[in-house]
Here is the input.
Amino acid sequence: DIMQLRYCLSCNKELIGRTDKKFCDTQCRSVYHNMNRPMHEITIQKINSGLRRNRTLLAHFCPSGKSTVRKDVLVELGYRFELFTHLFPFKKGTYYFCYDYGFLPIEDKGIKKMLIVQKQIYMENLNFNPWEFRL
Here is the structure.
């Protein structure tokens, strides 16, 4: 029986070990799978990463359930306003949520700020109709 040489699918290094082995190590396996993911999966991962980042920033600046922070502070830290998970229309405006934290855009003496809140139980009962909603 002549042994057939096998090579790592990622780096082409010769494989040693099991006969069904495809990669020389965990890093090569990850690199290979990341490079061969469909484009829509990469897009989804980037959006989810941005949403998590936004949520982390909101949670950081809202340790007690409600707080106000200047918009430019969050912009400086990389907050992406185009990414949010859902809306909560309110009589004073619309809250933009990233999972369980949201903000209401406000202006105080010409300074743009964000009123940050943690999601409350009453917000679960929203019957949202996008055909009746206007920003």
Observations:
- The chain has a mean pLDDT of 90.
- The two ends are 73 Å apart (CA to CA).
- Helices lie at 26-35, 39-60, 71-76.
- The beta strands are 66-70, 86-90, 93-98, 101-108, 111-118.
